[in-house]
Write a structure and sequence with these properties.
- It contains six helices and seven strands.
- The chain starts with a strand and ends with a strand.
- It is an alpha+beta fold.
- β2 (53-59) and β3 (62-73) form a beta hairpin.
Length: 153
Amino acid sequence: MELLKIVKATEKDHLKLTEITVEGKAFWGYSKTQLAKWENDLTITAQYISENETYKLVLNDETIGYYSFLDLGKGHLKLDYLFLFQNFIGKGFGQLLINDFLERIKDLNIIDIILEAEPNAENFYKKFGFITYNQRESSIKGRFLPLMKLDFI
């Protein structure tokens, strides 16, 4: 029987979460050169975990994904990261993570949640009620990141 749980990440998880982030981003076909350019953005530090709400998805004692969010104050949150190892993408684990996130924050008097989506993941977030309200050009010319929001009021 498989054991699946979502628990708070600890600082010692930073290397595993970085590995998940890089591999998860590579799922969308970005080159090794491009991924190297994004190294800072894809690195999860122990300090990041200690300063932000970060939760890992554990399957049979192996961390396979995670999410993190930032409290922007006054009822506004940012879903900062949500990543899985590639072989777990498209199998319902992302849905488990986002549902856990939404359940975890339901009593926090949230006005809205914002996020910057990977363009290939925009439709994933739309399934949970997020709407695209704007976009910003990424470091790749001609590639735009959907800026998305989920209102609670």
